[in-house]
Design a protein that fits this description.
Layout: E1 18-28, E2 31-35, E3 40-45, E4 57-62, E5 69-74, E6 80-84, E7 90-95, E8 99-104, H1 112-124, E9 128-133, H2 144-152, E10 157-159, H3 168-175, E11 179-183, H4 190-197, E12 222-225, E13 237-240, H5 256-259, H6 262-267, H7 285-291, H8 297-313
Parallel strand pairs: 3-5, 8-9, 8-11, 9-10, 11-13
Antiparallel strand pairs: 1-2, 1-4, 2-3, 4-5, 6-7, 12-13
Helix pairs in contact: 1-8
This protein binds guanosine-5'-triphosphate, magnesium ion and zinc ion (ZN).
């Protein structure tokens, strides 16, 4: 039967406003990709002041199906992981995370100072940390002794190989029920791990995208849910972050640095001075422990570099 223009078959779906809560999968400029209960939706932002980061919980609105959706507001963040950009300013990477996974590999060789900075940043923010050693198939080689340093400091460590699947099931089980942010040097295999855990993710790895120098490009943090009950707004998620070298917790007090080093924090109350920075003050217990080789000289050097960096930023 022919339907006239003024057919009363009920309002088309497009006339109804929709909206709800969502999770920011990725943030770009003045917009964001938001996971809603139904789909991943590209949204603009309402208001000039709104700044979003991967992992934000937001309220979104869409007046009609044909209209652009927009993010109206963002919920208070439980935490936010930041890096320091070239100008020394804090730049958010991801918010509302439960765990930081620091990925290293025998190739490229680890920058241990970077590992220490990541771990310190998480400790200062009370975020659980796990060290993930990828590319086991290449053998551990020269990195084994430093792994023992972290084992003694009780930093949990998982050993895996994306290429042959070693340790992946166990890692997947450990990461269930929480939001984990993957960080680490470029080329260690963060995107490869994300793809192994969440095959639908199709995160870009060195093989799939190549930049002008023939390399890959993970350029912005991206949230992926994973696991057997991967409901749209489920809490099991992994965030693939770009391999940035200059990540640091931008704490604005120098003394925050020592909280980030468990072994330094543990003995600092025995220093002669309350406000000891453990540089060259007399009666410094931390220095004594380093001299006696009970604190790793390399870790102590990381502490000094980080503390100096904070002093420079303060
Ligand atoms: N031998 C070996 N190579 C691996 C393994 N996992 C990943 N790779 C390789 O390591 C290279 C880098 O992997 P990506 O996943 O792109 O590294 P990424 O950490 O995401 O790098 P950025 O995005 O630049 O930060 C690729 O060529 C991968 O194939 C592994 O278990 N063993
Ligand atoms: Mg990547
Ligand atoms: Zn001291």
């Amino acid at each position: 039967m022919h339907r006239g223009r003024n057919s009363r078959a009920g309002p088309p779906v497009s006339a109804t406003a929709t909206g709800g809560t969502g999770i920011v999968l990725a943030s770009y400029g003045r917009g964001a990709l938001v996971q809603t209960a139904e789909s991943a939706l590209h949204c603009g932002l309402v208001g000039r002041k709104l700044r979003l980061v991967c992992g934000d919980r937001v309220q979104w609105q869409q007046a009609k199906a044909a209209d652009a959706a927009s993010v109206e507001s963002v919920a208070a963040r439980r935490n936010v992981i930041e890096r320091i950009d070239a100008r020394g300013r804090a730049e958010p990477v991801a918010a509302n995370i439960d765990r930081l996974a620091i990925v290293i590999a025998p190739q490229p060789l680890p920058d241990w100072y970077l590992v220490d900075r990541y771990w310190a940043g998480a400790l200062i923010k009370d975020i659980d940390t796990v060290l993930i050693v990828n590319k086991l198939d290449l053998g551990l080689g020269s990195i084994e002794p430093e792994l023992e340093t972290y084992a003694r400091l009780r930093l949990p460590c998982l050993r895996i190989a994306c290429h042959d699947g070693a340790g992946l099931d166990a890692m997947g089980r450990q990461l269930q029920g929480a939001v984990t942010l993957f960080v680490g040097q470029s080329g260690v295999g963060k995107s490869s791990i994300v793809n192994a855990l969440a095959p639908h993710a199709a995160a870009q790895t060195a093989e799939l995208t190549r930049d002008a120098e023939g390399r890959h490009t993970t350029t912005t943090a991206r949230w992926y849910r994973f696991g057997p009950d991967a409901a749209p707004l489920a809490e099991s998620a992994i965030i693939d972050a770009p391999g940035v070298r200059d990540f640091a917790p931008p704490a604005h007090i120098v003394r925050a640095a020592q909280r980030g080093f468990v072994e330094i924090h543990a003995v600092s109350e025995h220093c002669r001075f309350n406000d000891c920075r453990h540089f060259d003050e007399p009666g410094c217990r931390v220095r004594e422990e380093v001299d006696a080789q009970r604190i790793s000289a390399r870790r102590y050097e990381s502490y000094r570099r980080l503390a100096r960096l904070y002093e420079g930023l303060a």
